[in-house]
Amino acid sequence: MRISLLALMLQISAFAAPPRIFYTKTFPGSVPAYVSIVIEQDGAVLYREAENEEPARLQLEPEDAAAIFDLARKVDRFQKPLEANLKVANMGMKTFRWEEGPDKWETKFNYTLDENARALASWFERITEAEQIFIQLERSVKYDKLGVNKALLLLNTAWDRKTLVGHDLFLPLLDRVAKNDSYLNIARERAAMLAHTFRARKVKSTE
Q1: In 10 A of CB 85, how many CB atoms?
Q2: Cα(19)–Cα(41) distance, integer angstroms
Q3: Please, where are the H alpha helices in the chain?
Q4: Which residue among 10, 23, 156, 194 is least enclosed by CB atoms within 10 Å?
């Protein structure tokens, strides 16, 4: 009886599990050549550039996560082919996968004409860009103080283009630079400005 009840509870738990979206892109010769991203419905993100590495973590804003899941639903949760089958350049093989309890659907494509799928791929490129900027900024903060301002300029540019996601990820590094006089003054000032801007955006979004 206990075993049957446990099995029933596990089945109910599986069906009640919230959806998640998996994305991979393989593009030899590009940087990075491989990307794996998992997005939970609450906006939690796991990011990898190698299959067996420990993932980096990022938190999307609720409205960004909602937009991503909405686009995935608009393409039927990847239950239909997306590949355009046109003679175009190699743009990297992309895989979308939707998992929700026992249900799993997956589709792969190099190039698609589906506008919603292209918009969804753009979101994953934005996540990749944010992680790439973070990696460069973190490395500079630790090992190349003269290179910090260059990394901050990349961050500033992404913010100005309105493509930056996961703003809170950067705050500890920005605070570290802003409060440490061993970095160039221009870097400290830019770090303080960006930290203030990111925090002000967060306060405004909760009002």
Answers
A1: 11
A2: 6
A3: 2-16, 62-74, 115-143, 148-160, 171-178, 185-206
A4: 10
- HSE toward the beta carbon, residue 121, CA cutoff 13 A: 23
pLDDT in tens, the chain (207 residues): 445 655 544 454 445 689 999 999 999 999 999 999 999 999 999 999 998 899 999 999 999 999 999 999 999 999 999 999 999 999 999 999 999 999 999 999 999 999 999 999 999 999 999 999 999 999 999 999 999 999 999 999 999 999 999 999 999 999 999 999 999 999 999 999 999 999 998 766 555
Cα separation, 43 vs 20, whole angstroms: 10
Q: Which residues contact 67 (CB under 8 A, 6 or more apart)?
A: 123
Directed axis angle between helix 171-178 and helix 115-143, to 10°? 30
Q: Give the tokens for residue 15.
A: 């069906």
Max CA distance (Å), the chain? 69
